[in-house]
């Protein structure tokens, strides 16, 4: 590959994918992002500023749901692959504003596929989610049917997967869907549990725990996810591949305990009822990722959280000045 398009390049996972493409694969990266304000935009600029120092990175402020400006990008460049990391990704917020999820996750996905069809671009990688496995037996394997999404977010990702299947069938666009399992890491998303726990425990503010905290997630470190996403650019036809920890999932209470130890501070816990749009547990079967991509995660939860806390401590000075970055959930 010589040049790829990465959507959502200012995002948590998208920015890591861009860095790895440049560092490990010497690929020219065109990145687009609408820089929306779902969470404090300073974090997106923090990630984008680091990318803009790279001569192989080219940024365009483009919303994938806007066909006109997206078309310009495809007019100006020829791509070997499109990696769609642009998404509305918060599970619980999708009940408050489902329309933006439909717009970015479903319509934006269609716009990309249409541009790819018109310009003869043959490889598509779509970031999807373990949230689709709601109601299924664990560990989740890709062959399970995923017809019972319990959040608008999951429903829009299902829509995106289905549309990508159609475009593979009709127009032979080679597509790999990567289903991520609760991705965490430095410079992450402040709407997610681990980011809020690090920030709020350090600041001596209460954390919110939904339910009894024994719900669990197959947490996966962002560098492992970026590596798997890039491996997924190989030609495969149409495949869905889990990228997850693959071991026993970790409870939220365990994550809080590790963060308390790393910070040397105790959490003040404010309990709320379990959230209706949340799954109880997630756990990936990752045999297919190993077989098709030669991928396995490398970073343990303890090491990954250590890196999250280290990043937070290195950046605390400006983070604490961002108003409401982790205001009570
Ligand atoms: C933010 C927050 C969350 N929680 C609970 C809710 C969930 O049961 C659990 C994990 O929440 P989160 O860390 O936000 O992650 P989760 O809801 O699993 O969703 C993540 O993982 C999904 C699956 O990969 C992704 O598709 C989503 O984009 C990503 O946000 O922790 C709390 O108890 N307190 C909190 O403050």
TrEMBL record:
Task: Print the keywords alphabetically.
Answer: Lyase, NAD
Q: What is its EC number?
A: 4.2.1.46
Do you know which Pfam families this protein is assigned to? Epimerase
What domain of life does the native source organism fall in? Bacteria
Q: Which organism is it from?
A: Crateriforma conspicua
Q: Which protein, by its recorded name, is this?
A: dTDP-glucose 4,6-dehydratase
Could you tell me which InterPro entries the record lists for this protein? Epimerase_deHydtase, NAD(P)-bd_dom_sf
Organism classification, top ranks?
Bacteria, Pseudomonadati, Planctomycetota, Planctomycetia, Planctomycetales
Top EC category:
lyase
NAD-dependent epimerase/dehydratase domain location is 4-244
A GO molecular-function descriptor? dTDP-glucose 4,6-dehydratase activity
């Amino acid at each position: 590959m010589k040049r790829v398009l990465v959507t959502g390049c200012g995002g948590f996972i998208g920015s890591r994918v861009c860095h790895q493409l440049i560092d490990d694969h010497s690929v020219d990266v065109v990145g687009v992002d609408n820089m929306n304000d779902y969470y404090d935009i300073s974090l997106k600029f923090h990630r984008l500023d680091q990318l803009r120092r790279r001569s192989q990175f080219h940024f365009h402020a483009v919303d994938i749901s806007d066909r006109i400006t997206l078309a310009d990008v495809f007019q100006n460049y020829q791509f070997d692959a499109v990696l769609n990391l642009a998404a509305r990704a918060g599970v619980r917020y999708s009940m408050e504003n489902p329309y933006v999820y439909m717009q970015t996750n479903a319509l934006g996905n269609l716009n990309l596929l249409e541009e790819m069809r018109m310009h003869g671009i043959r490889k598509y990688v779509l970031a999807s989610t373990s949230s689709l496995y709601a109601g299924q037996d664990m560990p989740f394997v890709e062959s399970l049917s995923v017809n019972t999404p319990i959040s608008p977010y999951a429903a829009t990702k299902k829509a995106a997967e289905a549309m990508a299947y159609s475009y593979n069938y009709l127009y032979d666009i080679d597509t790999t869907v990567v289903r991520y399992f609760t991705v965490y890491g430095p410079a992450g998303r402040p709407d997610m549990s681990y980011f809020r726990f690090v920030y709020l425990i350090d600041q001596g503010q209460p954390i919110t725990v939904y339910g009894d905290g024994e719900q669990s997630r197959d947490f996966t470190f962002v560098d492992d996810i970026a590596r798997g996403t890039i491996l997924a650019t190989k030609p495969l036809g149409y495949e869905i591949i889990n990228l997850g920890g693959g071991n026993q999932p970790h409870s939220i209470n365990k994550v809080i305990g590790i963060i308390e130890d790393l910070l040397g501070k105790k959490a003040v816990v404010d309990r709320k009822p379990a959230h209706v749009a949340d799954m109880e547990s997630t756990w990936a079967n990752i045999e297919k990722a190993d077989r098709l991509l030669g991928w396995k995660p490398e970073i343990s939860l303890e090491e990954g959280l250590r890196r999250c806390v280290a990043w937070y401590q290195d950046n605390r000075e400006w983070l604490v000045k961002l108003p409401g970055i982790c205001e009570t959930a």
